[in-house]
Amino acid sequence: MTIKVNRYTENQKKIARYAKALGHPARVFIMDYLANNATQCCYSGDMAEELPIARSTLSQHLKELKNAGLIQGEINPPYIKYCICKENWEEARKLLYDFVNR
């Protein structure tokens, strides 16, 4: 029996995580919407007005972006304000840029 060694680098794992999170047009829209907002933050209700999807679907997309570390949420019942996680967003931009420009 041979033992398989994980040959994926940490950067490869990160690229895959970020790419998966951005793998849906609604999530790309959300990141674009937040990036173009002056404060890079907004309430989920504001985004719901802009997207032709149900609020529950929007919540799932926000959850995926949050799980990938690209956004963070601040709960102020009954509202949730989402912001770009600048450190991770910059890391994702650099990793993806370097990857596609090899």
Quick synopsis:
The protein is of the alpha+beta class and 102 residues long.
How would you describe this structure to a colleague?
This protein has a single domain, classed as Orthogonal Bundle (Arc Repressor Mutant, subunit A), CATH 1.10.10. By secondary structure, it is an alpha+beta fold. It is elongated. A hairpin with a 2-residue loop joins strand 2 and strand 3.
Question: Could you state the CATH homologous superfamily?
Answer: Winged helix-like DNA-binding domain superfamily/Winged helix DNA-binding domain
Strand count, sense and barrel status of the largest sheet are: 3 strands, antiparallel
Number of helices: 5
Shape: elongated
What is the architecture at the second tier of CATH? Answer: Orthogonal Bundle
The chain-level mean pLDDT equals 92
Low-confidence stretches: none
Spell out the helices and strands N to C. HHEHHEEH
**How many domains is the backbone divided into?**
1
Helix content: 55-70%
How are the strands of the biggest sheet laid out side by side?
1-3-2
How many individual β-strands? 3
| CATH fold node name | Arc Repressor Mutant, subunit A
CATH secondary-structure class: Mainly Alpha
Query: How big a fraction of the residues is strand?
Result: 5-15%
Distance between the termini: 37 Å
Alpha-carbon Rg, integer = 16 Å
Structural class, judged by helices and strands?
alpha+beta
